[in-house]
Specification:
- The protein is α/β, with parallel strands linked by helices.
- It contains 15 helices and 15 strands.
- It folds into two domains: about 170 residues, Rossmann fold, CATH 3.40.50.2000; about 150 residues, Rossmann fold, CATH 3.40.50.
- About 45% of the residues lie in helices and about 15% in strands.
- The strands form three sheets. The protein has a seven-stranded parallel sheet, with helices on both faces. Strands 10-9-8-11-12-13 form a six-stranded parallel sheet, with helices on both faces. A two-stranded antiparallel ribbon has the order 14-15.
Length: about 375
Amino acid sequence: MSRTKVLVIYGTRPEAIKMAPVVSALRRRPERFEVVVCTTAQHREMLDQAQELLGLAPDLDLDLMTPDQSLNGLAARALEGLDGVLRRTAPDWLLVQGDTTTAMVGALAAFHLQVPVGHVEAGLRTGDLRRPFPEEMNRSVIDLVAAALFAPTARAQEALIAGGADPATIFLTGNTVIDALQAIARDLPDEGVTDEILVTVHRRESFGGPIREIFAALRDLALEFPRLRWIYPVHPNPNVRRPAAEILGGLSNFELHEPFDYRELVRRLRRARLVLSDSGGIQEEAPAFAKPVLVLRERTERPEGIAAGVARLVGVDRDRIVEETRRLLIDPREYRAMANAVNPYGDGRAAARIACALAGEPFEPFAAGYPLATAQS
């Protein structure tokens, strides 16, 4: 049997984290797969941290990032660069992950060249093209052209079918972030629950007024709960850094850090009492450690955590953020109700299922409810 040539592309740290288990699963079967890894380096510094930690050594690095880059400028450079990569490598499959500009442009370039696309983390939807922006459009385009749709959850699978996808092209795999998380967590000490609150805020649609509302709420909370330590690894984008420094700088119990590498982020997540975040990945990762997460967004494409009771959508209104956070910090029953040990997103075997699907082999689909942690208080 001839080997299947798979080109894997990514451009950001979250993509690298979620693609690393897939690359490993494919490379464990050299008799079946030839794997070529390409990065656009859409986000250079944070990407390099993840690649080093996860042992990812790309065969091709387009190094496309420029200071304060625009979406259209990045997309244009990526389309031209990935067109050349696809022509030179001539893969049987292109794999993309998630909803970045790199993923969308890669899928479009492959479609133009009639290369089949596999979409890792297919089917996520909010139903609003502006929330999150531009991710909702990106993933919708990828799902439209993909020949294999690797859905992380049953809800994502249902969304794909409702959108007209052929059920025969959909594979229920679980989310590969749990594969990566398990691998990292195995080497971390158990530090228990500390007095730390982990914060991550960076969404593009929140730039301007909404992000200032979020930071004002965080300032209110830090002043109200001075014995807690508020830990915020600040995204390098100046639209985040400037208001963070202005509003949160100078508070003795609010720590503004450079972005953590993924190992340190997992460590901080594991020891945190509570998480406030607008990140998609954190919504998937926090339940693995039974951490309640308040989602600082108006809409989420990951409703499974909310349905399971481990996440709560609180929006960007200052008063509501303060109210919802205060409730979890002062009411033990409210906290325990959210510190749920059932993870609806994965069981650590998503990458192996993707490899089976690409090989045309049967596998047992992911079933939600895999317990990774014991609820803590």
